[in-house]
Amino acid sequence: LVVIDHDPARLEGTDLPSVLGDATEDSVLQEAGIDRASALVAAAYVDASNSFITLSARALRPDLFIVSRARSVDSEEKLRRAGADRVVNPQNIGGARMAAFVLRPHVAEFLDVVMHERNLEFRLEELPVAEGSSLVGKTLRETHLRDQTGALVLAVREPDGTFLTNPGPDTRIAAGHVLIAIGTGDELQAVSELLRT
């Protein structure tokens, strides 16, 4: 993780590797190591800056996964056109979470704990299915994932991005699928190993 900021005072408070500079400039992104990055998060305060960061990063690394922050709804589509793979609007998310705590407080709190509590026994994980996995072509029933590992598959994401939620036992696993599962760390690790080999 490398932090880029143009304000030296903000960088003083972090012990993470950092670069002082303007992230809209190619040279600053290169200094931060964009050539070997697996992802980039554009979280500047101004949407226009996030657009420039996204455009620059996409030009330097066409294969890079980019998440960009939007403060206004109008900017969301522009950021996607600039090359962001995902756009996050904190105001929308905050409003939706507040409503969820009012309408379904137990569900919202459970998801909060599972997603963010590091010391909780159970957690949610995304597990990609490798090309050479022995599970490719089998149905969930045939894999016996639940029996073998204890983890529960909640959804399957297709290569085109669509989700199949609560997949039935006859759902067939294919290379390129991503399984969304819940379980302990050991259970999820066991599933991950089965999907790789």
Secondary-structure map with pairings?
Elements: E1 3-5, H1 8-12, E2 18-20, H2 26-31, E3 39-42, H3 47-60, E4 65-69, H4 73-82, E5 86-88, H5 90-103, H6 105-116, E6 122-128, H7 140-143, H8 145-149, E7 152-157, E8 163-165, E9 178-184, H9 185-196
Parallel strand pairs: 1-2, 3-4, 4-5
Antiparallel strand pairs: 6-9, 7-8, 7-9
Helix pairs in contact: 3-4, 5-6
Please provide a written account of the structure.
The protein has 197 residues and is of the alpha/beta class. The chain is 42% helix and 21% strand. It contains nine helices and nine strands. It has helices at 8-12, 26-31, 47-60, 73-82, 90-103, 105-116, 140-143, 145-149, 185-196, and strands spanning 3-5, 18-20, 39-42, 65-69, 86-88, 122-128, 152-157, 163-165, 178-184. It has a four-stranded antiparallel beta sheet. Strands 3-4-5 form a three-stranded parallel beta sheet. It has a two-stranded parallel sheet with strand order 1-2. Strand 4 (65-69), helix 4 and strand 5 form a beta-alpha-beta unit. It is globular. 22% of the residues are buried.
